[in-house]
Amino acid sequence: MSCNWGTELWDQFDNLEKHTSWGIDFLEKYTKFVKERADIELSYAKQIRSLSKKYHPKRSREDESRYTWCLAFASTLRQLNEVAFQREELAENLNTQIVCELTRYTQELKTERKTHFQDGRRAQQHIESSWKQLESSKRRFERDCKEAERAQHISDRIDLDKTDGEKARQTAQQKQQAAEESRKDYVTILNQFNQDQHQHYHTLVPAIYQRIQDMEERRIERIGEAMRLSAEAERKVLPVVKRSLDAMMDAAESIQPRMVSLLLAESWSLVICTREFI
Question: Where does the F-BAR domain lie (predicted)?
């Protein structure tokens, strides 16, 4: 089977209309998903920033600048702020690169889809109108032929020398002429219908369906591109987040229990000596 909707799906207009409508619904659903994802990232960043602020000491004790575990915790809080900033960047990129663009594209897609299916319905209405005109002309031709045959039969049965015979002969001629006119009209309309039918199935419908197919393939491609951009937006912040996590690891590894013990011993020994001196 070829991949040309104009030739393979020429009788699936209603199904194509439903399918493309569902495709737009999916596009709107995905856009909503990314929007909610961005909102979650913003909320997460806000909570992380608030948590960091909450535990950051409002007044630094002198001891905190001496002890490695205090310094490590302060460094962790600073790095959390950086992580929060990166999540905000991610949310911003998701909104500007994906949500806004897909929202705009969806409106354009709806307009384009409406145009294509309006063209399809007009083409269908035209061929149906042409068919009805042909059927009407055919019925008229058949009726006129029967009336002509009946009038000729009556004329043949009546003596032409009589007045009724002349009248019947004239009526038969008129009916025959009307039948001939109907035949010519039927032939003309039949030829026009054949042209309309050929144009409908070989030109109009294939062109309209091809545009619908192109539109649908662009929609699918756009969704794939949006998914790629979403992953790329998150991948972009990962190196910075990794550096922050590495800094947290370095801060944790900088904690030296033995040094703290020595500091305490030296500090308290100095206090004791000072008291004894006094």
Answer: 3-260
Q: Which residue has the higher pLDDT, 191 or 263?
A: 191
Write down how long the chain is. 278
| 215 pLDDT more than 70 | yes
Predicted pLDDT at 6: 66
Confidence of residue 268 (pLDDT cuts 50, 70, 90): low
CB atoms within 10 A of CB 200: 19
3-state DSSP assignment of residue 45: helix
What b/e sequence results for 150-161 when a residue is b if at least 16 CB atoms lie within 10 Å of its CB, and e otherwise? Answer: ebbebbeebeee
- What are the Cα distances from residue 203, in Å, to 133, 164, 215, 249? 21, 57, 18, 68
Instruction: List the one residue out of 67, 7, 36 whose CA is nearest residue 267.
Output: 67
Q: What are phi and psi of 65, to 5 degrees?
A: -85, -5
Helices (H), 94-204: 100-157, 163-199
Residue 214 domain boundaries: 15-276
Q: What is the mean pLDDT of residues 139-166?
A: 77
- Determine, yes or no, domain membership for 3: no
Here the tokens at position 142 are 């058949």
